């Protein structure tokens, strides 16, 4: 699954699920029906479920089950818990979920182990209800306001915690609706999303009012084998440029930073490419987020079953165990590796993207 050809990668970057499941309650929402109409217009099979349970039956063969789940989109109603927003440090004050799951095939995917069950993608039909609670959280976050580089952004809302919303946008329109929603606000707030996809055309003409920051989630070209089904990095950078020209604040999420052999050359080339792609833009509002690769026993087990041939190193080499504030453990790079990565990246960012503000390192 890692070795997708460039042509397949580009096709996959415009996702077309094999089937769309629609629960009964989801069909009662105009946004849910609009998603189904777009899917039907593209000739995608629609399965109208009699109730609200997905009742998914997948093959016993884990590879086939994975493939079927990854090619399935479900239109559902988000549970009430999605309307009680959770803090999401260090990315943003609050997490706002437009969907859950992603059609791509990254062999480090951070969703593995955190989402239960087969990896189908669920999009939420009750988008208006989800967005409707966001004003209640204005001024309540503490993550952004404590960071001097971010204090001008107001309360921040992250839409990419459990999905890549741009990957789904052609079918859902959810991201456009969220951008327009925040664009209408007369308050200090920011919607944020990060993406490994590149089809930003539907977003360029929206009345965003500068209240949405798109970040391109990038890794070196040399690591494309770890990011099956995503858009090529060069396209992501060009998408970011288009968004900046359309007046959006933008950013790079360099994630996950992988200390594979030759990482200095690989990340140096990535930053050179980013510098070229974003050159000549006046009043560029550019941020950078730096997130190192990590995993835990649960996510490693899931990823090993999904991508058994992956060459991504998840051995104990260069790793230490870190205990989280929730009492769980994760494997992160050891201190020497972390220091080398951080020093290198911060220096190169200062050289290639001198106006960029680094928001955090983790
Ligand atoms: Fe996971 Fe992001 Fe890759 Fe999707 S694009 S598979 S969410 S890492």
Automatic annotation (TrEMBL):
The domain of life for this entry's organism is Bacteria
Determine if Lyase is one of this entry's keywords: yes
| Top class in the EC scheme | lyase
A molecular function GO annotation: DNA photolyase activity
Keywords on this record? Lyase
Entry EC number(s): 4.1.99.14
Which Pfam family, an example, fits this chain?
A: SPL
Q: State the GO CC annotations.
A: endospore-forming forespore
Check the record and name the InterPro entries matching this protein: SPL
The protein's name is: Spore photoproduct lyase
